[in-house]
Amino acid sequence: MEKWNEELLKSIESIASEAEAHHGEEDSGATDGSPQEELHPNDVVFRSTSRAVAVCRMLFNAQGIPEDFLLENVNPAFCRIFDIVSERAAGGSAKDLFMPDGKEIPALDLLVRALKEQQAVSFMFSSEKLRKVFDVLAFPIENDAFCLAITDATAQVAAERERRENERFTQKVLGSVDIWVALLDERGRVVFWNAAAERLSGISADEALSGSFDFRSVFCPGEEDREDIFGKMDACRRDGSPEVRLEACVCAAEGRSLRVEWTVRPWRFEDVSSDGLLLLGRDVTQDRQTEEQLLESERRYAAAFKETMAPMLLVDPETGAVCDCNDAALALYGYSREEMLALTNREFNLIPEEELRKNMEEVKTRRKDRFVFPHRLKNGEIRTVEVYASPTPFQGKTFLFSILHDITEKQRLEEQLRLLAFDCALQAKILGGILESSPDYLYVFDRMRKFRFSGKKGAALFERTPEEMTGLSWDLLGVPKERMAALEEHLAQTFAKGKTKYGVVVLPTTRGDMPLEYALYPVCGENGVVDMVFCSMHDVP
Fold first, then answer.
1. 385-413: pLDDT as tens digits
2. Alpha carbon distance 324, 340 (integer Å)
């Protein structure tokens, strides 16, 4: 709602008072061409302001109960907004002008209260006839007179509704992923905290977003690594690095300690021109515990190597030959044990051989232990594999012990999360462009058989805009029911069974009857239920 400061309020009060003083006065200009009476400055403002202003007087019934109000004077902006001539508006009652169907005047009780308490009130009201939403400020003048200052707020209300829908959509998507997602502003305060973050940390979104929550104490409670980790995070934001990968011990729910792998990326808050950080966390506690246990002894290694669900390989660093593997690795690559043990890592690792030899040497000398490789499976499919490798003594020789994670889907998910950072309104614009540019007559129906969307050409068929089509039905467009019987039956079947339906309908238009072929396609929600039907029509050849 528009902010009404004291100066504006006083100005409108002055305008309204001047308008009431001038109400009923006839034009003093002489018919013989003599100069007209000069207008008071406030009267000039009253007539030239872009806000709709009306001076009104409350009307009471025989029992003294307010039931209507009279518009004694209105300015040109009022006539323009409500599409009415001043002669009809001035002197007319609110019910006649705004409620021709006999309904009660909206917010009449607020106007009565404004007169009774001699205080200004503000409210919103919508006009079904004009398809507009108005922001109204009402304040008393004297006795039963009051002034209405009205602004067309249709665009602001629609924009707010779209913003909330986009926000709901983004929250729903981010809330469904099993990745800890946190967004920090430039001061380190949490401004986004998804469902996975609540589950892993045991901290509710309300607490995390309270402004007093110290994320760093949870992110890295230990003092030994804190300075190094936060230094890398700050450098990411300050230097604009694409991303930084970190691991930290996190205080989790029920006093548990989690090992979380973080992908840290800079984030730009365009609305306030400030920089923050986007953190994507994956719980790798079990993976790290498995690695540590495997390195404790050769005995424990053998048992864990065979039974763990994580794919594992034992590779000869000199030749790259696969010396051993577990069942999970066989399931990942699709080979039998005999086939797998006959391979070298050069046969499924797609990086250049020289680079692969260099990586194995780095693992052997403990200079590096984490890699991301493209691996080819037996069926030819390429998967992105994250490899944690370390030198392991076995039977008097040093081998490379590798734990593998197929992160193909993880990378796809991270890419989806990156794309979600863009304004969801872009998707709506793309859809709007498709609907407007299509040569066919395009419509989307909701379960109430009302138009949810309409293409530009489809709306023009009924001499309307796409916006005017929203919420209408065939009845409201004046199409006889008998002509729509077959299409309505097909709509019902598409909603009920999710099947595509085809048919022909003859629509009455300003250009005469038009036979059109149509196709109805179901659009399912996340629960699998058809909640919309997309309709494409084109001229019968």
1. 999 999 988 777 899 999 999 999 888 87
2. 8
